Amino acid sequence: MLSRIGFHKTRQGYGTDLLKLLVNFASERQYNVIGIEQASSPSVQAFAEKYGFNKMEGTKHFTAFTRQLATRL
Are 40 and 51 contacting, i.e. CB atoms less than 8 angstroms apart? Predict the structure, then answer.
């Protein structure tokens, strides 16, 4: 589990590259879901929505199926 990740420069593709790495890792190890916990900033929420993560009702958490993410990257 990763605790916290941030980038000094945003909108450079670093988050997308990291997501691709995580999707490949998850696929190789047969993980079905990737989650984002405590997406408190609007930019993280927008990133999650851009790639099809679903917000868990009443929280700031997002989840997405690995296969679904792979088709969007």
Answer: no
Using alpha carbons, list the distances in angstroms from residue 59 to 3, 15, 36.
Answer: 17, 22, 11
| pTM (2 d.p.) | 0.84
Q: What is the pLDDT of residues 29-64, one digit of tens each?
A: 999 999 999 888 899 999 999 999 999 999 999 999
CB 63 within 8 A of CB 34: yes
Token pair of 37 as six digits: 């916990």
The β-bridge relationship of strands 33-36 and 62-65 is antiparallel
Contact 19, 73 (CB under 8 A): yes
